[in-house]
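Need a sequence for this fold. Nothing fancy.
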């Protein structure tokens, strides 16, 4: 069914999430990681930006014409554009030995304790306070922040260090399985909170999350381990969302082809990202179907490593049209970039992406 041509942003997004036809392709904002670009769009000085970085960034996406906002990035330092630095990355080394790492794992609370100590009413009130405060600032844009903590963790490198992680995985795999299971309980509880917000009409019927478990060649852990221990816990953790018809969308960095079917079987309804330089082609992904036989939701697919960096504005416009054509009868498209837009992306290309959508 073709719907009206004057939809609100929320109606437009929900139309795509629910398989209806919008008046145009929706577009999401939130990943411009360059304060100079934000200032240019809003015509504000850096001093004015730093006086209120959150609302200045939101204003930039309003000017561009975003339908939804999945994040608001603010640099860590006013002399830089970076939102993360070397201190945020997970390191090979760990500050403690493998024996100490195992002791830490054994000392974690069991699932029953995690559930008993989870105060649903308090967590929901806190979530709603933050959501409504930011939604008020967004106005007609839909504030739908990615929920990165709402899935189980597979790679515990930030706790263990990569060396300890892979040593423990090889020598004591049950310890890593325990970490996955504990984080699945926590994710399930968080998703019950999110599902309530969806059912109450405050959060839309799709949510972005995921974990970077693939590098440029594929999975960093054996597919057999991932399929046997990780995927069942993902399926459990996202069930509250499935129950309220909220569609989980997986953030897809690296070569995610080995896990596409696994994630679909778990209940994922869409994918975001698509690093073509890793062999992940949109034409292939859109042919997939959900486990219910529905077209996938696509958040993407413009690359911040190739398309937006190297193409001219007119070529960016062509790429937008190409993505719409590819998804036309095969998938449900919400325009977004593959990842954060860094200063190497010309501002003219950002304008071209948004303008072509609105044309």
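Here you go.
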């Amino acid at each position: 069914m073709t719907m009206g041509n004057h939809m609100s942003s929320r109606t437009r997004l929900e139309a795509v999430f629910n398989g209806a036809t919008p008046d145009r392709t929706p577009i999401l904002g939130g990943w411009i990681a360059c304060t100079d670009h934000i200032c240019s769009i809003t015509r504000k000085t850096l001093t004015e930006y730093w006086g209120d970085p959150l609302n200045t960034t939101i204003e930039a996406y309003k000017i561009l014409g975003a339908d939804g906002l999945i994040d608001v990035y603010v640099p860590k330092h006013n002399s830089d554009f970076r939102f993360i630095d070397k201190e945020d990355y997970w390191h090979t080394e760990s500050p403690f030995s493998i024996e100490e790492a195992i002791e830490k794992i054994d000392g974690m609370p069991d699932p029953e304790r995690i559930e008993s100590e989870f105060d649903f009413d308090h967590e929901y009130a806190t979530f709603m306070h933050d959501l409504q405060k930011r939604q008020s600032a967004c106005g007609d844009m839909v504030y739908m922040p990615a929920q990165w903590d709402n899935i189980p963790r597979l790679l515990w490198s930030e706790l263990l260090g990569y060396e300890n992680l892979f040593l423990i995985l090889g020598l004591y795999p049950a310890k890593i399985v325990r970490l996955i299971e504990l984080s699945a309980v926590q994710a399930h509880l968080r998703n019950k909170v999110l599902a309530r917000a969806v059912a109450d009409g405050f959060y839309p019927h799709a949510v972005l999350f995921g974990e970077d478990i693939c590098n440029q060649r594929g999975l960093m852990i054996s597919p057999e381990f991932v399929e046997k221990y990780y995927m069942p816990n993902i399926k459990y953790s996202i069930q509250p969302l499935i129950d309220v018809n909220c569609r989980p969308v997986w953030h897809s960095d690296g070569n995610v082809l080995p896990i596409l079917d696994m994630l679909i079987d778990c209940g994922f309804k869409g994918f975001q990202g698509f690093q073509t330089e890793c062999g992940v082609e949109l034409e292939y992904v859109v042919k997939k179907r959900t486990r219910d036989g529905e077209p996938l939701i696509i958040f993407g697919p413009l690359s911040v490593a190739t398309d937006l960096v190297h193409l001219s504005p007119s070529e960016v416009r062509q790429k937008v049209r190409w993505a719409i054509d590819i998804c036309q009868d095969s998938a449900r498209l919400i325009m977004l970039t593959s990842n954060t837009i860094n200063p190497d992306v010309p501002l003219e290309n950002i304008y071209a992406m948004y303008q072509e959508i609105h044309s």
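For context: The two ends are 21 Å apart (CA to CA).
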